[in-house]
Write a sequence for this structure.
């Protein structure tokens, strides 16, 4: 189950890459820019601005979509089943209503990904698995990544590592670069923002660092969560204590995903302005570059 293939990306690994976005997430961080990835099943997005007032096509297809007294479309999301959502695919003429998520086989996905093989090879790029949390579908990732390796194509995965270790073990031989999140080191603060166990993430990261070919730690710097010197220094300390890890990317919080929360009828619980603390990021960079345990190369990524 995936929801997008983004071609010609240059942000999620080396060179020119295709990003395969898989559905389902085990953390549900409130700042996520892909909230449509959270559910492992199909999701329905509705953009009221695009809805045609003289159209009833979606209401004819579903008993759970109606117009209220003001002629505004209402969707009873609690009652919609996966089948109901599938029946709404391609119904809307204006793309006001769109279905997120599609099931395809390994062969079908490989065929799409291999279309850009010449670009991957020329640019030393490849294929990146993202999400959602791609390691919730380890069989799929492992099968596609091994096929890419047979073609001489580099593979990377973006993961929060909040999955059973056996899922990681399954894909480990087939992944060249691990882009792994390390969002916090304080379990209580982490738990008050995300659903999950920081202990599991740290334990997986420590094990992974002993086996992975390459790891890049990624830290979303989020207002009110970890945008302070103490939190960032502790994250850098943790990274410096790992085997085989000398690269860390700081990802300053932005608000580009807010609109999607409206389309999904989900509340947005984070700040409505991007992070603006350049001094904090510079302090973190210089702390990492002179770290007594292991020098960490920090990049600030947009
Ligand atoms: S099918 Fe699309 S345009 Fe027509 S009523 Fe539904 S959301 Fe609006």
């Amino acid at each position: 189950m995936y929801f997008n293939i983004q071609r010609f990306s240059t942000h999620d690994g080396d060179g020119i890459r295709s990003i395969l976005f898989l559905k389902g997430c085990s953390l549900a961080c409130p700042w996520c820019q892909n909230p449509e990835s959270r559910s492992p099943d199909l999701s329905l997005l509705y953009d009221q601005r695009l809805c045609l007032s003289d159209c009833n096509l979606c209401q004819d297809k579903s008993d759970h979509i109606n117009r209220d007294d003001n002629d505004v479309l209402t969707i009873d999301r609690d009652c919609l089943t996966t089948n109901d959502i599938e029946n709404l695919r391609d119904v809307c003429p204006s793309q006001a209503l769109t279905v997120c998520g599609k099931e395809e086989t390994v062969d079908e996905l490989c065929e799409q990904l291999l279309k850009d093989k010449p670009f991957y090879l020329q640019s030393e790029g490849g294929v990146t698995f993202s999400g959602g949390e791609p390691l919730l579908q380890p069989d799929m990732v492992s099968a596609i990544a091994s096929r890419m390796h047979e073609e001489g194509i580099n593979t990377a995965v973006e993961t929060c590592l909040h999955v059973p270790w056996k899922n990681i073990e399954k894909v480990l031989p087939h992944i060249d670069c691990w882009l792994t999140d390390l969002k916090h080191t304080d379990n209580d603060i982490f738990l008050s923002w995300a659903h999950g166990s920081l202990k599991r993430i740290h334990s997986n990261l420590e094990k992974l660092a002993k086996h992975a070919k390459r790891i890049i730690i990624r830290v979303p710097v989020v207002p009110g969560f970890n945008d302070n010197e103490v939190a960032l220094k502790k994250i850098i300390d943790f990274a410096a204590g790992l085997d085989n890890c000398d690269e860390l990317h700081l990802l300053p919080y932005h608000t580009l995903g807010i609109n999607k929360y409206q389309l999904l009828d989900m509340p947005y619980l984070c700040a409505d302005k991007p992070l603006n603390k350049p001094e904090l990021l510079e302090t973190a960079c210089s702390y990492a570059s002179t770290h007594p345990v292991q020098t960490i190369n920090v990049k600030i990524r947009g």
Remarks:
- The domain at 43-100 is CATH 3.30.70.20 (Alpha-Beta Plaits).
- Residues 51-52, 55, 57-58, 73, 91-92, 94, 96-97 surround iron/sulfur cluster (CB under 6 Å).
- The chain is about 30% helix and 20% strand.
- The CA atoms of residues 136 and 163 lie 7 Å apart.
